[in-house]
Amino acid sequence: MNVMELLLQLPQQSLARILHHHDNGETERSKQRCIEKVIRRLTDINDRTASIKNLQRCERQLVIFVSMSATAEWASHELAGLVTKSEREHVHHALPVLEKEGWLFPLPMERWIMPDELKKIAGNFLKQSVSMETVTVPAQKPDRHTLLTDLYTFIDEVKVKAYPLTQQKTIGKSQLGSLLRKLEYQEDIPNEKWRFGYGRHFNYYPDRFSLIYDLAHNEGWIQEEERLVVTTKWEEAEEMSVSRLMQRFMLTYVKEYRRALPQLPVLIKILATVLGKDNLALEKETVVSLLYPFTDDYYYDDRSAVIKKRILPMLVHLGYLCEKTFGSETYYSLSSSHLHGNRFFSSLL
Fold first, then answer.
1. Residues 81-97: pLDDT tens digits?
2. Lowest mean pLDDT: which of 32-36, 215-219, 251-255, 328-332?
3. Residues 265-288: what's their mean pLDDT?
4. pLDDT digits (tens, 9 = 90+) for 294-316
5. How high is the pLDDT of residue 347?
6. How far from chain centre, in Å, is Cα 23?
7. Topology at the third CATH level for domain 3-129
8. What is the pTM of this model?
9. Are strands 73-75 and 222-224 parallel, antiparallel or unpaired?
10. CA–CA separation, 79 and 1 (whole Å)
11. What does each C-alpha distance from 181 to 149, 156, 188, 230, 339 come to in angstroms?
């Protein structure tokens, strides 16, 4: 729904309140003139930019998260579930502010809506916030085949070895180390004391291998008995296309990581919005600064670690982002096949 359609539905009292806020206490008895003045303010880029810059963290999260979603209308409790956990208690204060600022509009049955024009303005605000930091890089093809190759290697090794499992249903350290050395992407067995929240055996297995294992387990391709065994379901998986297998990887990633990071799909959408279609890239610390206001700490992972360890490298493994190092700086851009991921991640918003 666009701004004009919404304003025509609003009662005079609501229109007057918005106009009073934006035009230094001005009042207008004519509804038509009131709408004309309000719509000029709400679609003025400079006015909207100043407004969003002055919003508190919860208010800004609501504006950005709603603008990234395909959902048309929101109940108040749904908006509370949209923001990070640390900001949920502030939502009931934020909604009247965003109504007065002209970002969210009330509907019957205690529902809220954001006009289409304002969604675009919010997205453009994010782009402009880092526009001076972007660089152009050549289009890069993602290295998705390494992930698939390592999946096949893992399954083949399980077929041959039928690894005996520990009481925790994990592969023993010596055999795990031997398995990891056979994969194309090399990882060490984690030695961090506290690892949890991002997968079935995340505390025992390294990040990327943990994702491979979770996919195989979730799809029923492997089964944890006294030994780890490959099931007959794997025969169907061997007939899957590359794109379908990668979609299953993406689904597994979101499913496992979303428990700890509920905002994960919208964070990915923010990256897609900012990096766009012009081979743009951002330096790692700029990406961290971009996503930082929209994330929370997760136990021993602070917000910076969440972005640097749980989001960026995993999206590179999945072939959604490309990583390029220039000197001492690391840059991230969308891969040439990111559109497939966009359609998938957008379906989760």
1. 999 999 999 999 999 99
2. 32-36
3. 93
4. 999 999 999 999 999 999 999 99
5. 65
6. 36
7. Arc Repressor Mutant, subunit A (1.10.10)
8. 0.91
9. unpaired
10. 18
11. 14, 14, 9, 20, 33
SS3 for 252? helix
Q: Amino acid letter at 146?
A: T
Q: Which CATH architecture has domain 135-142+248-346?
A: Orthogonal Bundle (1.10)
Q: Which residue has the tokens 């509920």?
A: 262
Q: How far is it between the farthest Cα atoms of the chain?
A: 81
What does DSSP assign to residue 309? I
- Please give the angle made by the CA atoms of 81, 87 and 93, to the nearest 5 degrees: 90
> pLDDT per residue over 228-256, tens digit each?
999 999 999 999 999 999 999 999 999 99
Residue 319 falls in which region: left (phi positive, over 0), alpha (psi -120 to 50) or beta: left
**Contact of 155 with 221, CB cutoff 8 Å:** yes
Task: Report residue 312 as tokens.
Answer: 């960026």
CA dist., res. 241 & res. 251, Å (int): 15
Measured at the alpha carbon of residue 100, what is the angle toward residues 78 and 57, in degrees to the nearest 5?
Answer: 55
| Ramachandran quadrant class, 282 (left: phi over 0; alpha: psi -120 to 50; beta: rest) | beta
300 to 195, 197, 205, 206, 349: CA distances (angstroms): 8, 11, 17, 16, 27
pLDDT band of 108, cuts 50, 70, 90: confident
Domain positions in the chain? 3-129, 135-142+248-346, 144-237
Category of 210 on φ-ψ map: left (φ > 0), alpha (ψ -120 to 50) or beta: alpha
Confidence of residue 24 (pLDDT cuts 50, 70, 90): low
Rounded to 10 deg, the angle between the 91-101 and 12-22 helix axes is 80
Please report the pLDDT score of residue 278 as a whole number. 74
**3-class DSSP state of 326:** strand
Between CA 5 and CA 65 the distance in angstroms is 22
The contacts of residue 108 (CB under 8 Å, 6+ apart) are none
CA angle 72, 76, 80 (to 5 degrees): 100
List the one residue out of 84, 83, 7, 65 whose CA is nearest residue 38: 7
Spatial CB neighbours of 195, under 8 Å, sequence gap ≥ 6: 202, 203
